[in-house]
């Protein structure tokens, strides 16, 4: 017979994960057994190239984001990562502070975003797309903008690109509910076009506030538009990926957007190298 205390501990852990996920999505309250509950409150500058993480050899599997693609060495190293979620809160990184002109909690900020009419994207959106995942995550992933599926559901990365992103996250021994996922833009550009600079300028304060409130240990920027917006550069992805930058004191690792990997599977090898850099950076931070 199982220990009732262990069962209760497991249920409490699962409930906390669900509450944190709903809070990350912008909900201030959830209903449980007829009662409302407040979720638990709980120019680019590259780093020294000599500190670049070693990349493990890619196995023979055609898709590096499947479990069978790991070599024995890479699986062993990945399993020692200090996983994000439910650790003690850490101070905001240098250069990143909570803005006084925006709400200082994610639920209120999400509601403000849902009412935003600062650019013309508000005229064509179905839903704003705020975020998904854990508000205590160490790893924060940033895409460029919502697509059609995201616009319909109000959540980031839920279409085919989102399914691939889930595999990419799993490939470094994490789960979607252990990371925080958002976009530079909170509204879908028509026909999924590249975000315009004025749209980025209007949305960037919201993203900066998310970063200040979540306080991640590491940012992974997905796609050229997201990287360029964060680093304020016009450089190509080829010249940016494979390196670690800083965004207001937070390490930032660029990689390809999952949609680009779907269009060009040949880029998956380089994306896997980037993900190993993400994994090893998180591991090094956990050991420090």
Short account of what is shown:
The protein is an alpha/beta fold and 288 residues long. It contains ten helices and eight strands. 39% of the residues lie in helices and 11% in strands.
Number of strands: 8
Strand order of the largest sheet: 3-5-4-6-8-7
CATH top level is: Alpha Beta
| The CATH architecture | 3-Layer(aba) Sandwich
- Helical stretch count? 10
Q: Give the assembly state of these chains.
A: single chain
Helix content bin: 25-40%
Our Rg estimate from Cα atoms comes to 19 Å
- Percentage of residues in DSSP E strands: 5-15%
According to CATH, the homologous superfamily is: Uracil-DNA glycosylase-like domain
Q: End-to-end span in angstroms?
A: 40 Å
What is the structural class? Answer: alpha/beta
CATH fold topology: Uracil-DNA Glycosylase, subunit E
Sheet with the most strands, sense and barrel status: 6 strands, mixed
Sequence stretches where pLDDT stays below 50 over 5 or more residues? 28-42, 48-61, 67-92
Mean pLDDT: 81
Task: Tell me what you see in this structure.
Helices cover 39% and strands 11% of the residues. β7 and β8 (250-255) form a beta hairpin. With 288 residues, the chain is of the alpha/beta class. The chain has one domain (4-287): Uracil-DNA Glycosylase, subunit E. The longest helix is centred in the N-terminal third of the chain and has 21 residues, at 4-24. Residues 28-42, 48-61 and 67-92 have low confidence and may be disordered. The protein has ten helices and eight strands. The strands form two sheets. The chain has a six-stranded mixed β-sheet, with helices on both faces. The chain starts with a helix and ends with a helix.
């Amino acid at each position: 017979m199982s220990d009732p205390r262990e069962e209760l501990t497991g249920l409490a852990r699962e409930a906390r994960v669900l509450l944190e996920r709903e809070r990350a999505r912008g909900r201030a309250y959830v209903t449980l057994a007829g009662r409302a509950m407040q979720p638990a409150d709980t120019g680019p500058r590259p780093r020294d190239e000599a500190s670049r993480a070693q990349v493990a050899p890619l196995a023979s599997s055609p898709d590096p984001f499947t479990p069978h693609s790991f070599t024995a060495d890479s699986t062993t190293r990945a399993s020692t990562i200090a996983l994000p979620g439910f650790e003690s809160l850490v101070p905001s990184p240098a250069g990143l502070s909570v803005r006084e002109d925006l709400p200082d909690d994610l639920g209120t900020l999400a509601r403000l975003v849902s009412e935003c009419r600062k650019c013309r994207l508000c005229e064509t959106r179905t839903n704003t797309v705020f975020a998904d995942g854990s508000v205590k995550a160490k790893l924060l992933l940033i895409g460029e903008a919502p697509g059609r599926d995201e616009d319909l559901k109000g959540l980031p990365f839920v279409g085919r690109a989102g399914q691939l992103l889930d595999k990419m996250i799993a490939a470094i021994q994490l789960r979607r509910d252990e990371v925080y996922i958002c976009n530079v833009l909170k509204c879908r550009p028509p026909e999924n076009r590249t975000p315009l600079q004025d749209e980025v300028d209007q949305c960037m304060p919201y993203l900066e506030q998310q970063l200040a409130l979540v306080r991640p240990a590491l940012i992974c920027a997905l796609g050229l538009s997201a990287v360029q917006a964060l680093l304020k550069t016009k450089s190509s992805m080829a010249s940016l990926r494979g390196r670690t930058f800083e965004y207001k004191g937070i390490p930032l690792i660029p990689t390809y957007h999952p949609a680009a990997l779907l269009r060009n599977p040949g880029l998956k090898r380089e994306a896997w190298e980037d993900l190993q850099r993400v994994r090893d950076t998180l591991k090094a931070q956990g050991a420090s």
